[in-house]
Design goal:
With 140 residues, the protein is an alpha+beta fold. Helix content is 29%, strand content 23%. It starts with a helix and ends with a helix.
């Protein structure tokens, strides 16, 4: 008798779960150029250095000396990506390549599922620097 009652209780639970997991209504989601799990900061016109912008990202440590600036995320140097192009780990190269006034947003990827599309060596994260004006920024 207990086996039959257990069977019907399991069957009722399965039917209830199936009824609740029907098609969900469509949610209007604005498409944006950023990853879902990323941290994004928008550059302001009064920003005077990329290092100061990076300091605003949670978990990013910037150490500056006279001739060298090093960026650390999770105890190591992250990969820098400039407008979708993999640049490398040296912050000084990035600093020489772009002007801070051209930066529109900086995005930090820490999730391994998001960073793996940029290839090996992304265990410390990826910092994406957006310099081109995007239509998503203009519509906000």
């Amino acid at each position: 008798m207990n086996k039959i009652a257990f069977f019907f209780a399991t069957l009722a639970t399965a039917l209830l779960l199936a009824a609740c997991s029907g098609p969900q209504p469509a949610v209007s989601k604005k498409e944006h150029p950023f990853y879902d799990n990323s941290v994004v900061i928008f550059a302001r016109p009064e920003s005077f250095s990329i290092a100061n912008l990076l300091r605003q990202l949670p978990g990013v440590q910037v150490s500056e000396s006279l001739n060298n600036t090093t960026v650390f995320v999770r105890g190591g140097q992250p990969l820098f990506v400039l407008d979708g192009m993999r640049i490398g780990r040296s912050f000084n190269e990035i600093n020489e390549l772009i002007n801070v006034r051209d930066v529109t947003a900086i995005e930090l990827l820490r999730d391994p599922t998001d960073t793996m599309i940029y290839g090996p060596g992304t265990q410390f994260g990826v910092i994406i620097i957006h310099t081109t004006p995007l239509e998503w920024f203009e519509n906000q």
